[in-house]
TrEMBL record:
Belongs to the DyP-type peroxidase family. It comes from Arthrobacter glacialis. This is Deferrochelatase. The keyword Signal applies. Residues 71-224 form the Dyp-type peroxidase N-terminal domain.
Length: 427
């Protein structure tokens, strides 16, 4: 059994405030604060008072180990910002794909430690900078980069069919979705999460840039205000104003049982990996905002303020789906939580790691925003089982539209420098 990734207060090769004497003394303190932040206690008071500058330095210097049994960005406590991008591979030879994966793996290791991917100032006026430079001096900011392979990567182009996990395919069409082909699929995906949006953006930009003759971006979502919670993290709110992530997969027993792929996958490169489902879900926010509080609460099965199940009073009270109030179920059977709770789905659980997103206004001036739903599970069937129920019965469907979708096989973590994702494919 694997413990959740322990964060470290990484010493970045870049300094947060270069030359700042103030931070030299903050280093020791930063370790303590970073530990507190990373263990999910971001909102709780650190044991010792620290200044704002020290707090910022700790946050900036927070880094997670890149090498390990699992990729980062799965059981890592959700950071504040997301850049999710799906790519199609335009290269046609296996060697070029191998090159992309090797280059990306090395660059991911560098950027998650806070290092640039090449010289920002190459030393010669005529030289093109290696790194684009916008994250210089910002620190790793808890950056994790999670790589996934779409089912289409295993088609005839690269000879990877023997490595395709059994039954790995695009998600089946499901009720209640209006998917836009421009926001669907992808041969590869990168989920970049960090506590600073510019650091996450920089990472995806530089990965895309270094492979620009071999991959092209297909769709991307910028997320903010993590709409999910890991162990010991306070529960944030989604754009409908409800706490999101209360009953998430948070402990190692559940991770092993529901998230990490085991030997049963039949593909050694996936053992310790997971499957990522990405759904861009548009919210009809103006309509939602006109609904009554009673109806909103009944739709989710939880109170809006505390986030308590309607059968209880506190956020973490276990929902009682048999409780009644005046003869009627306290939690409506067609409420969101009743439909997807593991108690009502043969024990099925998924690790949700979504983010709020906004794309400004749509063509007719309405708020274009919603939830970038991301979930990790040991088999995409877990997601499909829950989504089938939601798609056909969820009262939330009146207020949401699934517009984007992808499913990706997320390989296990890399053991050490020199290894790269997909190496087994090219042996
Ligand atoms: C815009 C779309 C969605 C919104 C706004 C939303 C919001 C919420 C909220 C507020 C909760 C209750 C708090 C919590 O336990 O986290 C919740 C729970 C949950 N949601 Fe969603 N959700 C959405 C889509 C989905 C989808 C697509 C799935 C999976 C197919 C899903 C699966 C779950 C699960 C498994 C729970 C925990 C239920 C429990 O065990 O009590 N949600 N969601």
């Amino acid at each position: 059994m694997t413990e959740p990734t322990e964060p470290t207060a990484g010493v970045s090769r870049r300094k947060f405030f270069s030359g700042s004497a103030a931070l030299a003394g903050a280093g020791g303190m930063a370790l303590g604060v970073a530990g507190a932040l990373a263990s999910g206690a971001a909102a709780s008071a650190p044991t010792e008072p620290v200044s704002d500058v020290e707090r910022m330095a700790a946050r900036a210097n927070l880094s997670y180990p890149f090498y390990g049994e699992h990729q980062g960005g799965i059981d890592t406590p959700p950071q504040d910002h997301l850049v999710f991008t799906a790519f199609d591979v335009t290269a046609t030879s296996p060697t070029e794909l191998q090159l992309v994966l090797a280059k990306w793996s090395a660059a991911m290791a560098e950027m998650t430690s806070g290092a640039p991917v090449g010289k920002v100032e190459p030393g010669r006026e005529q030289a093109i900078p290696g790194d684009t430079g916008e994250a210089t001096d910002m620190g790793p900011q808890g950056l994790t980069l999670t790589l996934g392979f779409g089912p289409s990567l295993f088609d005839e182009r690269f000879g990877l069919a023997p490595f395709k996990p059994a039954d790995f395919a695009q998600l089946p069409a499901m009720a209640g979705e209006s998917l836009d082909p421009a926001l669907t699929g992808g041969d590869l995906c990168i989920q970049a999460c960090a506590n600073d949006p510019q650091v996450a953006y920089h990472a995806v930009r530089n990965l895309a840039r270094m492979a620009r003759t071999m991959v092209k971006t297909k769709w991307t979502v910028l997320g903010f205000g993590r709409a999910s919670a890991g162990a010991n993290q306070t529960t944030p709110r989604n754009l409908m104003g409800f706490k999101d992530g209360t009953r998430n997969v948070k402990d190692v027993v559940d991770l092993d049982a529901h998230v990490w792929v085991g030997e049963e996958a039949g593909q050694p490169w996936m053992v310790g990996g997971s499957y990522l489902v990405a759904r861009k879900i548009h919210m009809l926010i103006e309509t939602w905002d006109e609904d009554t509080i009673g109806d909103q609460q009944s739709i989710f099965g939880r109170t809006k303020g505390e986030g308590a199940p309607l059968s209880g009073t506190r956020e973490h009270d276990v929902p009682d789906f048999h409780a009644t109030v005046a003869g009627a179920p306290a939690i409506a059977p067609d409420s969101h939580i009743a439909l997807v709770a593991h108690e009502n789905n043969g024990g099925t659980k998924i690790l949700r790691r979504g983010y709020n997103f906004t794309d400004g206004l749509d063509a007719v001036g309405r708020l274009d925003a919603g939830l970038m739903f991301l979930s990790f599970q040991k088999n995409p069937i877990q997601f499909a089982t829950l989504q089938r129920k939601l798609g056909s019965s969820d009262r939330l469907n009146e207020y949401i539209r699934h517009v984007g979708s992808g499913v990706f096989a997320v390989p296990a973590g890399l053991p050490a420098a020199g290894s790269y994702y997909g190496k087994e494919f090219f042996a």
